[in-house]
Amino acid sequence: MGQDERLLLGSTFGAAATAYADHRPDYARGAVRWALECAPGPRVLDLGAGTGKLTATLIALGAEVIAVEPDPAMLTELRRALPTVRALPGSAEAVPLPDASVDAVVAGNAMHWFDMNVAGAEIARVLEPGGILAGLWNVFDNRVDWVAGLERISGSAAIGPRDTFSSWRAETAEAHLPNSGSIAQFGSPEQAEFPHGQRRTADSLVATFGTKAGMLVVQEQEREATLGQIRAFLASRPETARGEFTLPMLTGVLRVGRL
Ligand SMILES: C[S@@+](CC[C@H](N)C(=O)[O-])C[C@H]1O[C@@H](n2cnc3c(N)ncnc32)[C@H](O)[C@@H]1O
Q1: Can you tell me which atom of ligand 1 is nearest the CA of 107?
Q2: What is the 69 CA–ligand 1 centroid distance (Å)?
Q3: How far is the CA of 17 from the centre of ligand 1 (A)?
Q4: What residues line ligand 1, using a CB cutoff of 6 Å?
Q5: pTM (2 d.p.)
Q6: For residue range 180-198, what is the model confidence (pLDDT) as tens digits?
Q7: What mean pLDDT, rounded, does the chain reach?
Q8: Of the candidates 196, 200, 217, 179, which has an alpha carbon nearest to the alpha carbon of residue 137?
């Protein structure tokens, strides 16, 4: 993805901030524990915190969390949901925190929006030596037959390669690296994934897809056509046609230590 496309797509979420808060999943606790297990202390920066989906899991696990988010509408939702959390406007390229002030930096479905040419040094600056940077991504478990079918009919604006079990590792393996020139700020990456799920109905799963960046930038007509295809597919499958079901997911984690 080019710089312009990344900037455009990464700034779309605020237009659907309330729907995002209502319909996006949280994160597998095992994944968050694994992300933080080597951190030298409890201070965690949730970068690109959005409406606070990952922030809430971090708090539940006892972390001392600061949330940073560039989009004012997303930040408003986060402050509404988690009024006691310290939540600041800012970005991965300009983090509003002092040097060596956190033990871990985590990013839930957000690291791919960062310009790591700039953000890599900025994240290293706010981390203690030995601190951890972790990217987390919720992905569809496309080993499950109906989920693989959903992937096939959805198109990449709704389910891209980064969004599935079979390809998230390859898609994110270098997410912590600058794409040109500068020196390495982090050690060797490790990746792992952890079972997760989200209770959905066909209608609420369609609403979840409506909050994807790719869906927020396409023309209304194309968006409605894709959501209509997804709706028809869900109505055609016994697993999803009626009532509530659990969407089979995993939370994938990429973690690296600050050098
Ligand atoms: C898919 S949302 C994820 C939000 C939240 N972390 C979650 O897990 O639900 C991506 C978030 O990254 C934010 N974002 C985009 N570009 C960013 C940047 N350069 N620095 C920090 N956050 C960014 C967006 O505003 C958005 O809130």
Answers
A1: 6
A2: 7
A3: 11
A4: 10, 13, 24, 47-50, 53-54, 69-71, 74, 91-93, 108-110, 113-114
A5: 0.96
A6: 656 678 999 999 999 999 9
A7: 95
A8: 196
